[in-house]
Amino acid sequence: MAFSLSRAVLRLATGAYLLNSGISKLSLDEESAGSIQDMASNAVPQVKQLPPATFGKALAAGEIALGGALLLPLVPTKLAALGLTGFGSGLVAVYAKTPGLTQGDGIRPTQAGISMAKDTWLAAIGLALLLDRKRKAVRGGRATKR
Q1: Is residue 146 part of a domain?
Q2: What is the predicted pLDDT for the residue at 142?
Q3: How many domains, in total, are found in the chain?
Q4: What's phi and psi for 119, nearest 5 deg?
Q5: Are 141 and 92 in contact (CB under 8 A)?
């Protein structure tokens, strides 16, 4: 697949964000990991089966791996985008299913939900990367590949 500046920008910005987020979670204390785990369990109840410290380390490792995959040009865009779409969709599910984060319509965020609502951009970037195709430019009546 040819180099695409728009794909590179999306991968770089999102990958750097996730890598930093994952690295910062490596030092989570058990109480903080437990708080994140409680929120995550609203969307995926099975995460409650893990000890909070294990959940925190697994979340950190997942964010670091996904951030790294987005930053490494050797990882195909579609593969990195699948991971990003899955992770972003999980965050959207946590946002939607956690009481108090959305207003009565279940979509618009409350003041407490604004920080989680912003994570919808991760799912959107993942989908944009997945749906991106080579475009054909029309020049002088003839289609040419970009």
Answers
A1: no
A2: 58
A3: 1
A4: -70, -10
A5: no
Structure token pair of residue 26: 């490596």
Say if residues 110 and 51 touch (Cβ distance below 8 Å): no
Domain that holds residue 56: 5-132
pLDDT in tens, the chain (146 residues): 567 888 999 999 999 999 999 999 999 999 999 999 999 999 999 999 999 999 999 999 999 999 999 999 999 999 999 999 999 999 999 999 999 999 999 899 999 999 999 889 999 999 999 998 765 555 555 555 55
Answer for the pair 116, 101: CB distance below 8 angstroms, yes or no.
yes
Kindly give, in sequence order, each residue whose CB lies less than 8 Å from that of residue 42, ignoring residues fewer than 6 positions away.
94, 97, 98, 99
Query: Of all helices (H) and strands (E), which one includes residue 145?
Result: strand 142-145
CA 72 – CA 74 distance, rounded (Å): 5
Give yes or no for a contact between 103 and 109, defined as CB atoms under 8 angstroms apart: yes
Say if 144 falls within a structural domain: no
pTM metric for this prediction: 0.85
**Domain assignment present for 80:** yes
The two structure tokens encoding residue 133: 């195709």
